[in-house]
Specification:
238 residues, 9 helices
């Protein structure tokens, strides 16, 4: 099989092809001059020639855009095509009325910027609390520095505990805690026991007896020994 003879091109032919690369592109210039696309692409890369942005292609009706000179390929900075992920938003932090009052007090004394840096809160939050405080002073909304009293919170908590206990009088403190947890009310077993005892709850006392008797069987299955466990359930609701 005869090998194909490699075709050579003069410098003038290369310049003519590269001149058509700018307005037409590599593919169209290769078809126009009957040269392999790989050769034209290699010449254009070596010479740093690219198709001009907005240039009119063959057979298109788009208007011609003024040519833009492009530098060599080596001088063109690399552009990353990797898409950056959107930054995740931080979770909003909540502040108690006493914390807001302390931050507003420091903002009035040292300035908003220093108070925001000291307490790790945004300046916009401080300005918003100031605005709410000014509206509350003229009776147009709740104050951000005031909230329910501690005694009111304690009374509401105790009422929830006693209400659940009266609904289920046979349950103990730990079971009442589980029932309240289903209502999204978090309270400790110690607190529930103290509130229930103040309302008349008395924990059952288990009488423990010593098992010091000995049994001796004469033959197999002569004696059977059974252990019973007794647990207090509570008074019947009927």
């Amino acid at each position: 099989m005869e090998s194909r003879k490699k075709r050579s091109y003069t410098a003038e032919q290369r310049e003519a092809v590269l001149a058509d690369v700018r307005p037409l592109g590599v593919c169209a210039a290769a078809q126009k001059h009957g040269i392999a696309q790989s050769c034209v692409s290699r010449w254009a890369t070596a010479a740093g020639v690219k198709r001009e942005l907005g240039a009119q292609s063959l057979g298109s009706a788009q208007p011609t855009v003024a040519p833009v000179e492009l530098g060599p390929l080596a001088d063109t900075p690399a552009v990353s095509t990797k898409r950056k992920s959107a930054p995740r938003g931080r979770a909003a932090k909540s502040y108690t009325p006493s914390q807001k009052a302390l931050i507003l007090e420091d903002a009035a004394k040292d300035g908003v910027a220093k108070a925001a840096t000291k307490h790790g809160v945004s300046r916009f939050s401080i300005y918003e609390w100031r605005h709410q405080l000014a509206l509350a002073a003229v009776g147009q909304g709740p104050s951000p520095t005031s909230g329910p009293a501690v005694t009111d919170i304690v009374q509401q908590r105790d009422a929830e505990i006693l209400s659940e206990w009266r609904s289920h009088p046979g349950l103990g403190p730990s079971q009442i805690v589980n029932q309240l947890r289903r209502k999204s009310i978090k309270v400790s077993v110690h607190t529930v026991r103290r509130v229930m005892e103040d309302a008349g709850y008395r924990p059952p006392k288990v009488e423990r007896k010593k098992h010091d008797r000995r049994y001796e069987a004469i033959r197999p299955n002569h004696l059977w020994h059974l252990d019973f466990v007794q647990r207090f359930i509570g008074p019947s609701s009927t």
